[in-house]
Design a protein that fits this description.
Distance between the termini: 40 Å
Order of helices and strands: HHEHEHEHEHHHHHHHHHHH
Shape: elongated
Largest sheet: 4 strands, mixed
Structural class: mainly alpha
Number of strands: 4
Number of helices: 16
Length: 389
């Protein structure tokens, strides 16, 4: 009962700190929710549409004009300029006004009639990876459809039936089924990991900040006294209010994603809320570990911010872990977001039983125990660490 009494005293002390220092509520609630709304609004349509593309039609025949009209009808492409020469189009691309150039050389229609296989060229600005990939895909698909239409017409003109032409042009029919994200929405693809990643970053920073701030402000001994000189009680009491606020923010983004935006989820929102709260506690534990290892606010927050930022690259959602080197694959296990992302893929997207992600649940639980060996070091730092301004 005495321990519970001391925990209550530390909790009340921390609530008073949160109430008097706006930075806490800003980092726990305001900034994360603002980021959630910003990212979801930026990608509200799922995919960018009508990206600016230029056309150079050196042939300028009814056939090539029909090709351009069909190209302009594609979802991701919007033809905003037509040039006589490729040099003019390249200048516009250098200025950033267009993302791609569709070049039809002179004599294209004549070569088609004579079955000489003319060449149509695409020029893409891959400095913008998403824009370059989407414009290339639509230009490539449109060109394939044009080839198929011309091939079909040629076979029919030589006496073949429409069915024979279709079999010859496309002997194998390909069906694509996008599992988990059939809309190919970038919002679904990115925000399911950006949201917890942003929250985890704020947790790293605020946990390291709040613990090392006790040393910086000279209140560390007061914290220990309030806790009955028990470092475990001090840490638990200090982090409980933050855990509650961060968990409420995590619940908010899950409701926002799966109830308001209707993102796909197979295993029910309850499991994602559970793993999100587990991510909150694991991230706090890692932030506490860094604060105990490096009691200086400057060092602890620098490493915490670095750890949080690297999490986005090494979690596997932007580039598959399996394609990385063995050492990087092993290092990815040191980041809580990696385990969260794997659980999300297994349960929310694929609807697999919890056993498929059991090791990742265990890893998040192990993160919660990570600071325990350094509690003695943290207590000594709170008692004696000489903060240098």
């Amino acid at each position: 009962m005495l321990i519970i009494h001391h925990i209550k005293r530390v909790v009340l002390r921390e609530i008073d700190t949160i109430a008097t220092q706006p930075i806490y509520l800003f980092c726990m609630v305001v900034a994360p929710i603002a980021c959630f709304i910003l990212f979801s609004t930026l990608m509200y349509q799922g995919l960018p549409e009508k990206l600016p593309v230029a056309v150079v039609d050196a042939d300028n025949t009814p056939t090539t004009r029909e090709i351009i009209r069909n190209l302009d009808a594609m979802q991701q492409i919007g033809i905003v300029a037509r040039y006589v020469t490729a040099e003019e189009a390249f200048e516009d691309m250098k200025r950033g006004n267009i993302y791609a150039i569709y070049y039809i050389p002179e004599g294209t229609t004549k070569s088609l009639i004579e079955e000489l296989r003319p060449t149509i060229s695409y020029y893409l600005n891959y400095s913008y990876l998403v824009a370059g990939s989407l414009t290339y895909r639509d230009m490539y698909i449109r060109t394939l459809l044009t080839n198929a239409a011309i091939g079909t017409s040629a076979i029919i003109a030589h006496g073949g039936t429409k069915h024979q032409a279709q079999v010859f042009v496309q002997p194998i029919v390909i069906e694509t089924h996008a599992i988990g994200n059939p809309w190919l929405s970038y919002s679904i693809y990115l925000n399911n990991t950006i949201f917890p990643g942003v929250l985890s970053l704020f947790i790293f920073l605020l946990t390291a900040y709040s613990v090392t701030l006790e040393i910086k402000t000279g209140r560390a001994k007061e914290l220990l006294h309030t806790s009955g000189n028990n470092i475990i009680v001090a840490v638990i009491g200090k982090l409980i209010p933050q855990s509650i606020f961060f968990s409420l923010t995590a619940i908010f983004y899950n409701l926002y994603l799966y109830k308001y935006l209707h993102f796909p989820i197979h295993d029910g929102i309850g499991s994602m809320i559970l793993v999100s709260i587990l991510l909150v506690i694991a991230s706090q534990s890692l932030g506490l570990f860094l604060a105990a290892l490096l009691p200086s606010p400057r060092w602890a927050m620098s490493i915490a911010s670095l750890w949080g930022v690297v999490s986005f690259s090494i979690s596997g959602f932007s580039f598959p872990i399996e394609g990385m080197s063995g050492s990087i694959q092993a290092a990815s296990n040191l980041f809580p977001l990696r385990h969260y992302f794997t659980i999300y893929c297994n349960q929310a997207l694929l609807g697999e039983p919890i056993g498929y992600a059991a090791t990742h649940y265990a890893a998040l639980l192990l993160f919660c125990l990570l600071p325990l060996p350094l509690m003695g070091r943290l207590k000594k730092a709170l008692e004696n660490y000489p903060y240098i301004k």
